[in-house]
Amino acid sequence: MFSRLREDLASVRERDPAARSTFEVLTCYPGVHALMFHRLAHGAWRRQWFWLGRFLSHISRFLTGIEIHPGAIIGRRVFIDHGMGVVIGETAEIGDDCTIYQAVTLGGTSLYRGTKRHPTLGKGVVVGAGAKVLGGFTVGDGAKIGSNAVVVKPVPAGATAVGNPARIVDAERDAQREQKAEQMGFSAYGVTRDMDDPVSKALHGLLDHAVETDRRLQAMAARLEAAGLQLDSSVEAKDDFDASRLSRMVD
Questions:
Q1: Does the predicted TM-score (pTM) go above 0.70?
Q2: Which residues contact 178 (CB under 8 A, 6 or more apart)?
């Protein structure tokens, strides 16, 4: 038990730049306290002392604001940051080195007892603040769940899921969007990154269109030059795309 506690304290020091000392983490971090209580409650649950397990879980919830069912299985070096409002269900499983932020729910969608109702998180998963992961599926190793995402389907290892309902981010296309946004001096992600509101969708569509238009124009210019037609270098490119106006729209 004490070796697990030392691992927990060290992992918090590694992942939280606000942690100034091990003593501060031990005495002032509710996520660490909730895990300590859970180990006691889970031990009681495995011995079929169900009332005692639930009672210890209830005390932990009262003291930390973090509700972990005593039946949940939690790996090593799990970090629950801030933690207020975190709910982890009975059949949830959390792998080693996961990070969970405040107001996260690992919940179930089935009412049948004895079934796998809650999600399984692989190793190194990061679940952003306010995210809801609902159902008895698996989130693969190293995956990331964006803040306020609602995940109801499996997430592949290493993927990023965002939005409501959550979708898997296309890393290549998002990189193109971000590159084009930087060229225009405007980042569509500054306020509305990966959210499913209409403004965000419109901006993503515009950026996708701009990327595709630039690609086609460059291909046409290359073919014209290859055919011996030189473009007039005196013609200045004109861009009427008012990025600052769009930026104000999402402020």
A1: no
A2: 187, 189
